[in-house]
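Newbie here. two chains, one complex. Structure please?
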Amino acid sequence: QKEVEQDPGPLSVPEGAIVSLNCTYSNSAFQYFMWYRQYSRKGPELLMYTYSSGNKEDGRFTAQVDKSSKYISLFIRDSQPSDSATYLCAADSGAGSYQLTFGKGTKLSVIP
Amino acid sequence: DVKVTQSSRYLVKRTGEKVFLECVQDMDHENMFWYRQDPGLGLRLIYFSYDVKMKEKGDIPEGYSVSREKKERFSLILESASTNQTSMYLCASSSWSGSYEQYFGPGTRLTVT
């Protein structure tokens, strides 16, 4: 069983829509959670980082972690065509391991 | 801003060649990582290093080796390239200072013919 599961999509939404991207995880030791955005043929770019449960907001982006249900979400408000990319969730146990466990990514297209 | 650079964006090599991929980071990070990324398989960790001259195998180390002689530089070596090593190779770095987020380079698209 993969430790971080993510629906690969593709997900297609109209410009201006609210986008919800989700991951589930199985390892209850995970403490740090990240979202990366990856444009085609580029390296992943760190978008959001949260520790433990709760919400974190940065402009149009909100990251949410619910440790009780082992659920990670990224919300994008007022989506733009420039948000079209693959979004990867990641988690780390924080217990001395420097590795991250990545989801496989969800491909998002925002249609003008 | 953290900057991670990789020596080539695109590389074409022949089967059996020895291939060197280089990665340099400018943020004094202790940890460096090499991944490959393939459609449907996601990111897979090849090797990582948490200090100069230290290395640890990741999930798919077979056919690869690494070198870290200086803190800022981490090299991936394909000893004898094979067609199944055609992939996108991504280098990343992170700090020991608690938050574990990794910063990626732009990637090297390697084609082995």
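Moderator note: Chain B touches chain A through 24 residues (CB under 8 Å). Chain B is about 0% helix and 55% strand. Thread marked as resolved.
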